[in-house]
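Aggregate trends can hide what the representation actually does to any particular protein. The sequence in question and its structure tokens are set out directly beneath this paragraph.
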Amino acid sequence: MQPSGFRAKHNTHVLRVLIVLVVLGVAGGLARALLLPSSFGKYGHYRADAVREEMRRPLRNMTNESCLACHPNIKKIHLAGVHRTVSCEVCHSAYADHIAEGKVVAKMPVRRGEEIRTLCLRCHNRIIRARPKESIKMIAMPDHLEQKGVRTDHLCNQCHHVHAPLKWIREARAAMGLPERPQTAAEGGVSWMRD
């Protein structure tokens, strides 16, 4: 028989664990109260003030309409071409790099030479499967140039208008009296005129 007030030593580890858990819980609650922003959780699992802060940041990117308002010649070509849904900023950099407070602050980069091919292949490169084949035309270089019967050092903009890639192709077909849709080889079409 054990004397009264005697506690078995095998229960003391449970008491220690409970004390540690309570201390950690209190410390975590205090840390949360001190460190968690007051707006956290107001609209979901994020800091609500972040929305207002983001709204105050200056805009860097704009819509194509912002660019095309000042470039009417490009607007006519761009909107008629297959690239009409591609943002001007994909190729030319952010609007804010060009316009600030309604004034031109710098010229937009215009790709030249080998930069053109690199830029086009960011989206049209079949080898790296940049896009699903069903969505846009995919090519492999230099195979594409060899199939068209042109020199393999040609750049994309030597055959394609950069803002409307099929514009010059269609004009060439019309000038030669060829149909809009080229015939396949089985229909007697010329391979270099096929898309």
User: Anything to note?
Assistant: Confidence is low (pLDDT under 50) at residues 185-195. The beta strands are 99-100, 103-104. The CA atoms of residues 11 and 51 lie 52 Å apart. The chain has two domains: 47-110, 114-193.
